[in-house]
Structures are given as C-alpha cells and as structure tokens.
Amino acid sequence: MSLFALSPSRGPRWPVATQAAVCIAVPIALMTMLGQAPLGYVAASGAFTVLFAGSAPAVDRVRLLPFIAAGLIAAGALGVAVAGYPWLVSIGVVVVSTVSAALCFGFRLGPPGPLFFVLVFGLSAHVVADSPIEPLAYLAALAGGCVFSLAVAAAPLALPRVRARGRRPFADLFPGPALNADTRMLLLRVALVAVLGVLLGLVIDPTRTYWIVGSAVAVIGVAAARRAAVERGLHRMLGTVVGAGAYALLALLHPVGLWLAVLLGALQFTIELVVVRHYALALVFITPLVLLLTGAATGDIGSLDVALERIVDTVVGAALGAASGLLHPRATAKR
Q1: Contact of 210 with 126, CB cutoff 8 Å
Q2: How many domains does the chain have?
C-alpha cells in the first residue's frame, strides 16, 4: 500500500459507486424538496449499507445487506438512547466497536469491517444531542435511508440475466461464527484501541471519542499485519489532513439543498472508485463528505474549528491503530 502508487484494479467499481452516490444524494434531494432537509442528511447515512459486499452478485447482496442495515439501525438506536450523556456515549463506543468487530470478523464480512457501525453510533449520539431533530424522527430517517439503500442494491435484479445467476449457500455468505488466530488478534486490537481512544477522548473532548476510535478502527481494517497497520495509519493521517483542507475550500461555497446533494453524491462516487486502489486518496474525499454531512445535520456546516478538531482526532486515532499492529507476531506480518 504505497503512498505514491495505485494498487491493481480489482474489477469494475462503477456499479457500487453509482449505488452509493444514489443512496446518499437522493434522500437529501427528496427531503430538501419536502422542506425536511435535516432528515435527508440523516437518511443519507443509510448509504453506508451498500458499501458492504460491493463485489458480490446482486442475488447474494440482497440476502446479506439486510443484516448490515439492521446492525446500522441498532447502532443508531443505541446512539440516540445515550445522546446527551457523555459517559454513556463513551461506554457505548467501546461496546459497539467490540461487538461489531466480533460480528464482522467472526462472520468474515470483509471490508469495510466495523468502522461504519462505530461512526453511525457516534454520529447518532452527536446529532441528536446537538440538533433539534427528535429522536424518533432521527431513527425513522435512518431506517428509511437503510431501506432505500436495500432497494437500490436490489435494483439490478430487475434484469433477468442478473436474477438467473446462481445463489451461494447462506453458510457461504456468513461463514462462521468463528475466530482464528488472526481475527482474534484483530478483535483484541479493536477492543484495546476503543478503550484507549475513549480514555484519550475524555482528555481531549468527550463528545469526539467516536471519531478517535473510528479512526483507529479504520486503520486496523481487516488485515492482520504489522506493516498494513503502519501504512494505513500514514494513509489516514495524510489523507485526512488534505481532506480537511478540501473541506475548508468546499465550505467557502456554503453548499446547501440540492447543490449539497449533488456534491455529496459526487464525493461518494469518487470514494468508491478509488478506495480499493489508494486509501489516502480516498480519504481526501471521505473527510469532506463526513464533515459536510455531519455539519449539515447539526447546522454548523462550514466550521473550520470542526475541521481542525477532526485532524487532531484522526492523528490520535490513526496513531493508536497503527501502534496496535505491534501486537501481531512478526511471522504474521510476513504473510
């Protein structure tokens, strides 16, 4: 994973990139036209559903993604339940990180792993605590976004040739639950960085612990190797710093409404095209997307203070995630 070279292509990415862009842009555009833009921003987070199993055939994805959607909604519900209680949010970050990692690793879900469950929990707690959105309205919007994402993922089944493709046995879609030596180590690393990230967050700012832990979990990923941890840490730090600069420039345009829907859709499309080939480059687009989406939902879009906070949180979290890679035996790092 070089900072200066693209990884080999793993096949066409435009189908899942298009789905992800539609899933984030359409809810925002629709709810904006209905006069409920804040709920559109919440529903757009349901787009995280289609980021899983992107290379799987549609006949298999429609059987797997409902479980992802249920997990995201559960994480969001827990975040809503503890919103406004920093200590409970901190405990929740550790619980959601550990449980989602155990499920993702135990059932071999693959990339992006537990990251988005942690982010949805943290974002839900943050948005409900800092915006006028009612808890039930928030959950309804999140669930609606997840259901819309499932519908978009199922859309290719309208084609007979797609429906005709043979389905894999359910046990192949969810192999497990089982943890081998590598996945047990990954789970240990996630649990460790979650606890340490929360403790550091209590010193830095208790309301930002989810971003610190999310950054660490993103660095851990699903690869059991020391070198991968260090490389992903460097990618995340560099990509986030550049991405925060991109956010600052985009914020000067004060994007709102349909313009913001188009902008976020374009960012999401680009992310899915490049994320498997260059992690740092993807983060140049991921960072402004998340900052714009969160800022729009809470009403503080364009805040440069938030961008600086995210840089600090990411550096701390990425360093934690990279350092946790030292727990892997050297033999594991050579694989």
Answers
A1: yes
A2: 1
Burial class (CB in 10 A: 0-12, 13-18, 19+), 161: exposed
170: domain range?
A: 14-333
Q: What is the mean pLDDT of the chain?
A: 86
252-299 residue pLDDT tens: 788 888 999 999 999 999 988 888 777 778 888 888 888 888 778 776
Neighbours of 190 (CB within 10 A): 28
Pair 257, 37: CB distance under 8 Å: yes
Say how far apart CA 99 and CA 87 lie, in whole Å: 18
Unique residue bearing structure tokens 């797609």: 162
pLDDT number for residue 5:
56
Cα–Cα dist 142/286, whole Å: 20
What does the DSSP assignment read for 120-185?
A: HHHHHHHHHHHSS--HHHHHHHHHHHHHHHHHHHHGGGGSHHHHTSPPPPHHHHS--S---HHHHH
Per-residue pLDDT tens for 206-240? 888 998 998 888 888 766 666 776 777 777 778 87
Rounded alpha-carbon distances, angstroms, from residue 35 to 32, 140, 186: 5, 16, 44
Does 7 map to a domain?
no
Amino acid identity at 328: H
Whether 5 is covered by a domain: the verdict is no
Read off φ and ψ for residue 84, nearest 5 degrees.
90, -5
